[in-house]
Amino acid sequence: MRYSGFRVFTQGLGGNKGWTPAWRRPDPKPDYDIVIIGGGGHGLSTAYYLARNHGLRNIAVLEKGYLGGGNVGRNTTIVRANYFLPGNSEFYSHSLKLWEGLERELNYNVMHSQRGLINLFHSDGQRDAFARRGNAMLAQGDDAVLLDRDGVRRMVPYLDFEQTRFPIYGGLYHPRGGTARHDAVAWGYARGADRLGVDLIQNCEVTGIDIQNGRVTGVQTTRGAIRARKVAMVVAGRSGQVAAMAGMRLPVESHILQAFVTEGLKPVIDHVISFGMGHFYISQSDKGGLVFGGDLDFYASYAARGNLPMVEHVMEAGMTLMPMIGRARLLRSWGGIMDMSPDGSPIIDTTHVDGLYVNTGWNYGGFKAVPASGWCLAHLMATGTPHPVAARFRLDRFRTGRGLMDEEGTGAQHNLH
Amino acid sequence: MRIPCPCCGSRDRREFTYYGASVFLDRPAEDAGLEAWDAYLHLRDNPAGVTRDLWYHDPCQSWIEVERDTVTHAILSTAPVARRRA
Ligand SMILES: Cc1cc2nc3c(=O)[nH]c(=O)nc-3n(C[C@H](O)[C@H](O)[C@H](O)COP(=O)(O)OP(=O)(O)OC[C@H]3O[C@@H](n4cnc5c(N)ncnc54)[C@H](O)[C@@H]3O)c2cc1C
Ligand SMILES: [Zn+2]
User: Fold this and answer.
1) Which one of the ligands is nearest to B64 CA?
2) Coil, strand or helix: which one is A364?
3) Which chain A residue is nearest to residue B37, measuring alpha carbons?
4) So where are chain B's domains?
5) Probe ligand 1: pick from A119, A235, A272, A284, max atoms within 8 Å of CB?
6) pLDDT digits (tens, 9 = 90+) for A157-169
7) What's the pLDDT at A183?
8) What is the pLDDT of residues B46-74, one digit of tens each?
9) Which residues of A246-265 are buried (b: 16+ CB within 10 A; e: fewer)?
10) Which ligand has the minimum distance to the alpha carbon of residue B78?
């Protein structure tokens, strides 16, 4: 069923009785050409582009829980292309362009809102670094504007500009940055893939990967064995366990990141604002809730809930930046399991097993990557060659030391990116 | 979360700094080769369940190896790194 304003109108007149499910619930077949492990944003977009761009049809996505129950439905929804290093820069630039056409492409309202992103800086040195980053963004063909303090004040007058710890010197403004509705992105890709014949199989946990003579032959699941010629591991925070099924140890450590939302308020914060020095960032959802977050809890964890010291730290940083939010009441908080890599950048690559692919290491920035990650993994799986904008996301870059992309310059420690 | 420091007893998590998996203590020999150094610096078992990692207790300045569950956040045991190294 195609969605349109006209259909919403006519369905409304008919008591909304004519809507049909957005995707099928098929039973797994014994055999597929391609199996994608993980029904998060990246798994679903990979399946969609395998079908859409490469005409492949016999594909299944296996999800242990429900579609969108992982990080894709837990993030704070920021979409941006403000990376600095070659490798990341062209990839996220490509992704943002896909975002800009996504709703038309999927015939689905993902509520992509380019409300602009402001990264604040608080010293002369940081200003220089941000000016350089802005130039890299412009050189990549994206947009960036360096704002001085008055420029920031005109846009977001409610910040505390005079705070003594981190007085605001200015900000790097990225007008095309913004947010999207995370669930809708998962649902939109799921519906799109389903319409192209992809089987989306929920409550189906992969428990083993079958390998014969160095070639993948299928997977074992809680719903039986499934044969496949190609298999991709796209499981974000669970990458360590799934890769172990193929005898691999990955350069990934799983950490918990929390997020918070307040009760719904009238429109008050028009942009996405990030306060890096305080480990705090915030935007306001279309429903009115202030959506904000901070840093990792810093220790390895698979609990999809965080610890109170980080809650306190995030609230303190929020109050430092914009004391006006002190009266808002917190509604909910939750956590997601992040696949942290040693340089903070992702991996989209083949493995030592023929026909087995890996997509991981998204740290806390993989939501904005959903379109391009699927686009590039599909390209790699269908053509056998890496897509040019993801060619540097190699698994072996840690072993060789060639082509590391450490945006923050914090070195090979997983939790510091 | 509270962590029993072998020196100070049960203390608030905020007094500790986390370092990472305790395999960090098993430093390869200088000439151990590329694979050993790659494994040491980058590759992780990353278990969902019992793990051992390193925490630094700021007040008493000791490094502690903590055995804990990454799913439940339960702390199972702690031991000073100094003893293990000796
Ligand atoms: C609090 C928070 C805030 C964030 N904020 C942002 C942000 O503002 N901007 C941004 O760009 N990114 C953000 N991120 C990061 C982003 O959400 C993730 O990087 C991205 O969603 C990960 O890819 P995914 O969607 O495929 O992961 P997931 O949705 O986690 O998908 C992986 C799926 O694999 C399934 N799975 C695991 N093991 C198995 C198995 N054995 N068999 C079958 N299925 C399995 C899981 O159930 C899960 O559904 C944030 C993350 C969190 C937690
Ligand atoms: Zn102590």
Assistant:
1) 2
2) coil
3) A399
4) 2-85
5) A235
6) 999 998 888 999 9
7) 97
8) 999 999 999 999 999 999 999 999 999 99
9) bebebbbbbbbbbbbbbeeb
10) 2
